[in-house]
Amino acid sequence: MDLATLKNAPAPDAGRPSDDATVAVSIRNLAKSFGAGDQKVYALRDIDWDIYQGQMSMIIGPSGCGKTTLLSVIAGILDADHGTVDIFGEHVNRMSDAARTRFRARNIGFVFQQYNLLPALSAAENAAIPLVIAGWEKKKAVAKASSVLEGLGMGKKLRSLPNTLSGGQQQRVAIARALVHEPRLLVCDEPTAALDHDTGLSVMQLMRKAALRPDRAVVVVTHDNRVFHFGDRMARMDDGRIVEIIDQTKGSIAHD
Amino acid sequence: MNWIALKMLTGDKPKFFGIVMGLTFAALLITQQGSIFCGLMCRTAGQVTDITGADLWVMDPNVRFVDDVKPMIENNLYRVRSVPGVKWAVPLYKGNGRVKLTPEIRELEKIEPEDSQGRELPPVYRRKIDEYGNPARAKVIEQVILLGLDDATLVGAPPPERIEAGRVEDLRKPDAVMIDYTRLRKLFPGEEWSLEETHRKTASELTPEQRTRFELAYGRIPTDPDGKVNFYSLFLARELEMNDHRAVIVAICEATRTFQSNPVVYTTFSRAKQFIPRERKMLSYILVKIAEEDQHPGTLLDRFIGRIGLPSWLDPKTDALIRSESPGAFIANEIGGWGSERRPETARVTKAILDRTGLKARTRQEFMWDTIGYYLKYTGIPINFGITAALGFLVGTAIAGQTFYNFTLENLKQFGALKAMGATNLRIVGMILLQACVVGLLGYGLGVGLAAWFGLSAGKSELAFYTPWELLPMSGFAIVLICVLASLLCIRRVVVLEPAIVFRG
Question: A245 touching B, CB under 8 A?
């Protein structure tokens, strides 16, 4: 499925945000390089992009184009060379490390490609980790995580260890972990890459259903074209630049 | 976060046990080898610590350790007695003697007969008989350490708590000697040594087989007036031959095993001279008591203890207390360091003895450390044990450190995820330190516990095993060091870890 086809594809649900949606993340003139001297390679260049609340924004493109690097900078776990990243009005890349860590703990939820669940913890305990980091007592944190997991259809697997769960179930636990502390920004790195087609679709449906709220923005990095149609807006990257922004409700905007 | 750290640690059981076992092994090796080393060192000075009641040991100035006896003329005893500040001075002979004895073999053979149809009948015991049809006999010539105590006072004899059979006072009887029980087996092979374990048991605790053995070998079960079996009393009144002189055993005592593990034979000074081939100089040491004893804090404490009784925490049977002159002196030495070593009159009398007689005077503590120091310096023992303990430390570090480091490396991505989710470096470092503390404590506890079990199992066997309390913090420090080294490597990796690692597939 190419992008031209995609933009005309029907949305999976009718809950599209309105045009006056609030900007959640504002990226201006962003650049990021790795290495130094002759070895210096630009992973991101001249990135300008707005991510809106109430929308699922996707970053797509070929391997090595800088998708994950951009997501890392947006999530505040990687420093940019220059440019600004404002999340809900706060200049994340000008914060101290400690302030940024606190900001992440409060405002950002993560879904990883390999789930990164702690193998020794049960599903409920894994999902409770962000609350524990925020200083909750274990008992209360696990209770809240259990209710979130039940909402995601994992009520019978609360005490299961990750190695006894299927890939789709593990990703549900990861989604519960990302949502349990009710973050305002959810960043997802290739959430369907390790899943089969049907499971991938159901995970994306679940994510739209459970994660998308008017006061929350969701950013998904993916190269899985089977799930492109779940995104409201897509930034197509190539060679470290955003070459096209596609608003699936309106059409494509040439970026350069 | 602490519970997460602990679950991460115990979740991978093989690795968890690997780390704990590595640390256990290190703690065990360090504590056990250290204890054997301390045990050996204590044995070297056992003769010094066993002799109580005197403040000073006076000797030839060239003596370096207790076995390095350089005999003096007996006139020196009277010269020392004339030194101001000396309350009393008594002679002590210490030398090597030879004991000859022809013990009867009393060992019993167990025969398990069968009837004509091959069925087992009750076992029968009979004396071992030699090829000529006589009870077997063996000749024994054994090297012993001979201690000759002052005839009048018997200063230097073991205290009553260490007498297993007979009476010290009987040393004043003709030809009397007292022998330590730890090496009796060497002097009397062929006895029913399996019955030694019955010592101090009540007669009702004996098994029928033990009763049979007693009856067949000795014709009786030896018991004290309190009804307890006294195995060692079987050796009282037995005769030995020393330097063509008859010697009669009148008492059996406990003595600290010596480094060479030779039996210790006590007798009087004058009789010791008969038991040893004649030499011109026979005075090995002079034991001296310093006057002005009333000034000693230990004496004051003794008066106090006399009124209120011995404190409940002070076991009257502990070796340390037995070796002290009195409970008061023990407490004063332990708590205040007010032993005779620190008393000003000790230094004064020591100097006076040197000035007036040319002889060297050492306190018991000083002489003990002189002896230990000699063995440390000239035998290479500490190097060998040090190498073993160092190997234990290195192997422990290698096993535990490497496993712990690998454990952290394998969890690096999980730590990265925690950092991405907002866990600070400080909290993650805290998690790693907690994990290190837990495995360290477990390993240390198990290692020291196993070493203690080893020591208890060794009991009164040949093995020299003594664990001073100082050894426990030392091995604890070694384990802490291993954990810190392992943790530092892990912490460094985690602190420099970029949380972005979690986004790399």
Answer: no
- Amino acid identity of residue B380, one-letter, is G
ipTM: 0.79
What letter represents residue A120's amino acid?
A
Q: Left, alpha or beta for B398 (phi > 0: left; psi -120 to 50: alpha)?
A: alpha
Cβ count within 10 A of residue B419: 25
Q: Say which of B414, B420, B505 has its CB closest to residue A77.
A: B420
What does the H/E/C string look like for B3-45?
HHHHHHHHHCHHHHHHHHHHHHHHHHHHHHHHHHHHHHHHHHC
CB A50 within 8 A of CB A14: no
CA distance A212 to A184: 10
CA B362 to chain centre: 23
The two three-digit tokens of residue A194, written as one number: 């390790």
B120-165 residue pLDDT tens: 777 777 777 666 666 666 677 888 999 999 998 898 888 888 889 9
Q: By CB neighbour count within 10 A (0-12 exposed, 13-18 middle, 19+ buried), where does B225 fall? A: exposed
B459 class by beta-carbon count within 10 Å (0-12 exposed, 13-18 middle, 19+ buried): exposed
Q: Are B341 and B366 in contact (CB under 8 A)?
A: yes
- Confirm or reject contact between B499 and chain A (CB < 8 A): yes
DSSP string, B466-504: ---TTHHHHHHHHHHHHHHHHHHHHHHHHHS--GGGGG-
Q: How many angstroms away from the CA of B384 is the closest CA of chain A?
A: 44
Is A107 within 8 Å of A91 (Cβ atoms)?
A: no
Q: How far apart are CA B1 and CA B9, in angstroms?
A: 12
CA-based nearest residue to B174, from B232, B233, B237: B237
Name which of B422, B499, B505 is nearest A113 (Cβ-Cβ).
B505
Q: Nearest by CB to B505, which of A106, A114, A133? A: A114
B402 close to B19: Cβ distance less than 8 angstroms: no
- Find the Cα–Cα–Cα–Cα dihedral A112, A114, A120, A126, rounded to 10°: 20
Interchain pair B505, A110: CB under 8 A: no
Q: What is the DSSP letter of A223?
A: -
Residue A172 DSSP symbol: H
CB contact under 8 A, A98 and B499: no
Q: How many angstroms separate the CA of residue A249 from the nearest CA in chain B? A: 29
Gap between the Cα atoms of B240 and B99, Å rounded: 7
Beta-strand relationship, A41-52 and A233-238: unpaired
Give the DSSP letter of residue B401. I
Helix (H) or strand (E) holding B149: strand B140-149
Cα B169 to Cα B149: distance, rounded to the nearest angstrom = 12
- pLDDT tens for B454-479 read 888 876 667 778 888 888 888 888 88
Chain position carrying tokens 């995820």: B417
Q: Is A116 on the interface with B (CB under 8 A)?
A: yes
pLDDT average per 10 residues of sequence, chain A (256 residues)? 40 44 84 83 86 87 86 85 86 82 86 84 90 88 88 82 86 86 87 77 78 82 83 87 81 51
Residue B4 with chain A: CB contacts under 8 Å: 118, 121, 125, 129, 132
Query: What b/e sequence results for B185-213 when a residue is b if at least 16 CB atoms lie within 10 Å of its CB, and e otherwise?
Result: eebbebbbeebeebbeeeeeebeeebeeb
Picking from B361, B293, B340, B338, the residue whose alpha carbon sits closest to that of residue B83 is B361
**Relative orientation angle of helices B471-495 and B412-420, to the nearest 10 degrees:** 60
* AA letter at B269: F
B448/chain A closest Cα distance in angstroms: 30
- Which two structure tokens, joined as six digits, stand for B491? 């912490």
Q: What single-letter amino acid sits at B448?
A: V
